[in-house]
Amino acid sequence: xxxxxxxxxxxxxxxxxxxxxxxxxxxxxxxxxxxxxxxxxxxxxxxxxxxxxxxxxxxxxxxxxxxxxxxxxxxxxxxxxxxxxxxxxxxxxxxxxxxxxxxxxxxxxxxxxxxxxxxxxxxxxxxxxxxxxxxxxxxxxxxxxxxxxxxxxxxxxxxxxxxxxxxxxxxxxxxxxxxxxxxxxxxxxxxxxxxxxxxxxxxxxxxxxxxxxxxxxxxxxxxxxxxxxxxxxxxxx
Amino acid sequence: xxxxxxxxxxxxxxxxxxxxxxxxxxxxxxxxxxxxxxxxxxxxxxxxxxxxxxxxxxxxxxxxxxxxxxxxxxxxxxxxxxxxxxxxxxxxxxxxxxxxxxxxxxxxxxxxxxxxxxxxxxxxxxxxxxxxxxxxxxxxxxxxxxxxxxxxxxxxxxxxxxxxxxxxxxxxxxxxxxxxxxxxxxxxxxxxxxxxxxxxxxxxxxxxxxxxxxxxxxxxxxxxxxxxxxxxxxxxxxxxxxx
Lengths: 237, 243
Ligand SMILES: Nc1ncnc2c1ncn2[C@@H]1O[C@H](COP(=O)(O)OP(=O)(O)OP(=O)(O)O)[C@@H](O)[C@H]1O
Ligand SMILES: [Mg+2]
Known about the structure:
The complex is a heterodimer.
Chain A: H1 24-63, H2 68-81, H3 85-100, H4 106-131, H5 135-143, H6 148-178, H7 190-201, H8 204-233
Helix pairs in contact in A: 1-2, 1-4, 1-6, 1-7, 1-8, 2-4, 3-4, 4-6, 5-6, 6-8, 7-8
Chain B: E1 4-15, E2 18-29, E3 33-37, H1 44-51, E4 59-64, E5 67-68, H2 75-81, E6 82-85, H3 97-108, H4 113-126, H5 142-154, E7 160-164, H6 172-187, E8 191-195, H7 199-205, E9 208-213, E10 216-221, H8 223-228, H9 233-242
Parallel strand pairs in B: 3-8, 3-9, 6-7, 7-8
Antiparallel strand pairs in B: 1-2, 1-4, 4-5, 9-10
The complex binds adenosine-5'-triphosphate and magnesium ion.
């Protein structure tokens, strides 16, 4: 066997080996590096979902309020949903630094653009969730002397969140997948790791298959988790 | 001289072009049980909801214990004094029965949780549901839900109780249990304003019956008098249909 000059952990082509055969061993040997990338993907997405839910909740409420916030929220939602995440990421990573005169680390830029993006989508989900709650709930709470904040916080949002858990789960899953876009700013998340490994092994089929499997495992886990939460949050024994 | 608790002065309410209340004036004194009857769409619910500003009157005033109800200043305070019971219960489905009852005292009055719970259990006993404290509303029958809703309103120790057709959404066999609780409250001397089609209840515990039609008070009087000897044609027509 000859050394082909790339990292040996990825295995090598043997003498008479054809490209047609599926190299399972390559998948195994690249797994540690891919999982490293997957870890970053999960990290970025989780943090972005967290901020996205906060931002989205405020946006959803603002959307239903009276006054200037209502319009601001509408503009935010329309602009974010009307432009590609890729461009948003470029604006944050390349555009913003030129205005604030200091670089933004790729990790921060990724979280920022993913959060802002997710916030807009979550905002619409939260708005529809709030609107789906019977207006009798508002009336009962008001008639007991609760103010608007207390009613929102203790009566409306808890019920709305229970109801919007499935679309929120979908948003989490969509973001998991979309987060691969931040590979363009050289963040070594799952997709970028895949590209790097292919650059060394020239085996795109095996590696992309491995990447796809890992994505699927992640999204499938999230959707099971959401199902579980939904069942647990439904009252009664 | 009994104290006036609620005073309504020349109340008007329109939804767009639809004039629902067209000059309603009304005084209710402490301990009085006032029953409001009238055909569908005559403005009974709207009148009740204007009292605690769930609907904002187009014009006119509501005074509570001599104080003008003003959404800019004292609305929460006054709403706390006017408990409301709805046709569809409007319990909070995500909270256990006991938390439905303690929520407002804890949040709005800053009552200590244990104290509020003790009181809640007491109220549940009054409405015959002490064993349901830790159930969720959806585990209760309609009649039980409405009794919880009454306990929830009572938890704020309101001066007045407003009932908007509290038995209309109930199966016939459950109406009695709710009316029983309401009668008990009336006998305790609570001030109550009740919109209902239950004429038996009106006769038995009502101090005054108000007949509303097309946004005005058409006729009012003691139940015996109004039911047996209505003066207005409209009242006669309505009563002949319903009795
Ligand atoms: N929020 C609203 N917007 C528009 N119209 C309304 C609203 N609330 C009530 N109305 C109308 O006002 C009129 C009076 O309604 P209201 O509920 O006060 O009648 P009611 O006497 O309580 O009747 P019912 O016995 O059917 O409950 C009805 O024609 C109703 O359609
Ligand atoms: Mg009504």
